[in-house]
Each structure stands twice: as structure tokens, then as C-alpha cells.
Amino acid sequence: QVQVAESGGGLVQPGGSLTLSCTISEFSSDYYVIGWFRQAPGKEREGVSCIRSSDGFAYSRNSVQGRFTASRNNTDENTVYLQMNNLKPEDTGVYYCAAATGNGPREAHLTRLCVLGQLHDMDAWGKGTLVTVSS
Length: 135
Hints:
Layout: E1 3-7, E2 10-12, E3 18-25, E4 31-39, E5 46-52, E6 58-60, E7 68-72, E8 79-84, E9 93-102, H1 104-115, E10 124-125, E11 129-133
Parallel strand pairs: 2-11
Antiparallel strand pairs: 1-3, 3-8, 4-5, 4-9, 5-6, 7-8, 9-10, 9-11
């Protein structure tokens, strides 16, 4: 059964940067899509970014484009990152990585859902890591 685990959260000042890591394991499918999600206090969880394994295509939602970038480790394809720059207090929340695995058509479908902001039903979720942006 696929498993994911994220790390790298912490306290950062406004304007600062932070990199989150996510490792996927125990999967047997050809491809995966990793989604990064966050949940701010008192708000619903929202998708932030995603990346797919076949070609490293990554996408971030409009509100964080230019500041957040999903990428993968060039030597370890089962590790992906979320680079967060110019952090703002409203970026505070618990950040989760989640994985969905499958064949090529499913990977393409999941990617479309991510771009549409409709990526929700993942196969596995991490426990979350807290990011606090405050001076």
C-alpha cells in the first residue's frame, strides 16, 4: 500500500523561504501524482501544487504561482519538494503531501484535476507538517 511522508515545516518570517519534502514508498504502479495541500486554521483544506512522475510536470495554483514550486529529486525519483518563497502570513497552515498512483491515463486524469483545482481523492496522505509564517 502506497505511503507518503512529508517533512520540513517550521517557523519562518514573512518574506522568507522554506522547502518541504515528501517521500513516496510502497507503490507498484507505473506512475504517481503527488499533490501538496494545506489547511489554514479555521479553513478547509485546499490544493496548492502537484507534480507527476512521468515527466516532472508541475503546477501551482494561481494564488501561489511565482512563489511556490513543486519539483522532484533528480537522483531519487520517489522524493519531491515544495519550494516556498516570499512566504506570507496567510500561507500559515498544516501542509500535506498526498499521492495517487496508476497507469499513464490515470496520471493524465489526475493532472487535469490538479490544474482544475479538483484534486481530492488521493490514495495516501501524509500526517502533515506545520508551516507558520510570522514575525
